């Protein structure tokens, strides 16, 4: 255990936790928009997987990590629009249609990877940016100010999301549509247009999350996300539909995972017990779901399609 | 008469919607084959031959369909109570683990006649436990069951990895130092008996079909089934009618999990290696049946009996996918992607199907009333007893209604 309390290891653990939180944070923030407007998009993991493959493949071919991130975002927009079509226009049962998107993404990303790449080839990762001045602070510098641009952007998007949802007209419309679509509609707000926008934002961020994950790891493999998209959806509940809460959940997940990883590497817990330790985040999430279900109320119109005049 | 004809047309259209969904998905699959430089004609032929072309192919398909059917039946039970069970994967793992542990614990002491039912029941119990948790959390704490079942999938896979790498590992793996995470060869008395003189077709498919029939009887011929369907249709009214809504919801997810648990046990004791093995992922054990079972159940109109042919079809698709991979070197992941499309198409067209159904039943009622006015002054009760939720009523119950209609002419 004493191995753990050294500067290098502690810095690596905290910094690792922040890094691991990024894909979850991006995907969960996107999902927050959709859910606040009343749409549960269960297909996040599928979109993440396709974003991850597209990002990986683009970097593999161009060598440019930013093209990879943009490619992930582009595929996210397309799949976000498709998801909007499915749940808003066609009014499919949201608890199931997302599983379809997930299976499609899981199969398709694997198919494309096997057919176009075959054996995993490592790619360039995001460059680290040391923030001048701040990164030199002992301990804290290494933990918080020596990350890739994507990490900073992900955490910057938290206040941006808070501002959009709470302070703008668009945000007011999102909340109105999610709580009482009939009333919003009677005031001239287009329910479907707002929901198309939020679900597409969700898809975009999920695509970005997938690409960020693949480029951060520098690799792609079958089922790379390992259900992170589903965890992101749970984090939206965990954070009680608020960006700050969602961020807290993503960080908790990141830290617990980083800690388990670090403990395993240092041999503090035996290899076999690390499987038990890896259950911790899922169990914490279930407990958090119980607490949130008692204390907070989900958006009233969540999972309910809107039809005018009913 | 003209309106009765239009009723038929609308209702045929309603049935054809899921079939069209699969056709469209297959056409997209063919287009993808072209884009991947593989011959679609060759691909389709390889798939069909691989899945249905010979006796051995049919056996493979039946074996592949078995977990899909069991999980699908479980999905149906949960869905009738308006509960979405995405936790089939975890429940299969839980069932597989408990049945394996039971077999390891009992050893070679018991004869097959007792051993086989015991391990299958252990599987049912394992899955039931894994389903009861999200069921109770939903009923008593209002926790969204989609999320809790997914979280329990993650817990189950870690539990499986822990048990198969540690307490339940084959001692031989430790002696040899290979440490492959798998159990020892499970007691032979627990092997699922083979049937029809085949060397690999076991009683699994038969068990699954019986389970589907049992679920049908449970849902439509017992008070418990009535309560499950009532709660699914209108929980508030059910509460006023004195139905214990919370207990019924918990029970529905428990039964749903039990079916998936049975699927897990069938996978273990019907496997060729007769061991439980993990590759670190749930899909490695379940073959994604926990998700593909949802596809089969949806395609079967969420009716236990129609899920039987639906599972056979999707089992064939999965077996055909492997043949496809061998024949034209297109990864079988294609089938998973197409399954996803089928789900999307089926649920996206659901509203359209409902509209067609409503039109059909309205036209039929009008036609019947018109006829009765002509022939019989006393109006008979038409459609007094609804068989299942009107929006998702299985084709079987509608067929019964159709026969009544023609009998009156």
Can you walk through the features of this model?
The complex is a heterodimer of chains A (310) and B (409). With 310 residues, chain A is mainly alpha-helical. Chain A has a single domain (2-122, 140-295), classed as Orthogonal Bundle (ABC transporter involved in vitamin B12 uptake, BtuC), CATH 1.10.3470. Chain A contains 13 helices and two strands, in the order H-H-H-H-E-H-E-H-H-H-H-H-H-H-H. Chain A has helices at residues 7-36, 44-62, 65-89, 94-116, 140-144, 149-167, 169-179, 181-186, 191-217, 228-238, 243-266, 273-277, 280-295; strands spanning 128-130, 146-148. A two-stranded antiparallel ribbon of chain A has the order 1-2. In chain A, helix 1 (7-36) packs antiparallel against helix 9 (191-217). The longest helix of chain A has 30 residues, at 7-36. Chain A is globular, with a radius of gyration of 20 Å. Chain A starts with 6 loop residues before the first helix and ends in a 15-residue tail after the last helix. The model of chain A has no long low-confidence stretch (mean pLDDT 88). Chain B has 409 residues and is mainly alpha-helical. Chain B folds into two domains: 2-6 and 352-407, no CATH class; 39-329, Orthogonal Bundle (ABC transporter involved in vitamin B12 uptake, BtuC). Helix content of chain B is 75%, strand content 0%. Chain B has helices at residues 2-35, 40-52, 55-80, 88-106, 112-141, 145-165, 171-176, 204-221, 223-233, 235-240, 245-269, 282-286, 289-299, 304-328, 333-348, 350-375, 395-407. Chain B is globular and about 85 Å long. The termini of chain B are close together. Residues 377-409 of chain B have low confidence and may be disordered. Classes of the chains: A mainly alpha (310), B mainly alpha (409). The interface between A and B is large, with 50 and 49 residues.
What is the topological layout?
The complex is a heterodimer of chains A (310) and B (409).
Chain A: H1 7-36, H2 44-62, H3 65-89, H4 94-116, E1 128-130, H5 140-144, E2 146-148, H6 149-167, H7 169-179, H8 181-186, H9 191-217, H10 228-238, H11 243-266, H12 273-277, H13 280-295
Antiparallel strand pairs in A: 1-2
Chain B: H1 2-35, H2 40-52, H3 55-80, H4 88-106, H5 112-141, H6 145-165, H7 171-176, H8 204-221, H9 223-233, H10 235-240, H11 245-269, H12 282-286, H13 289-299, H14 304-328, H15 333-348, H16 350-375, H17 395-407
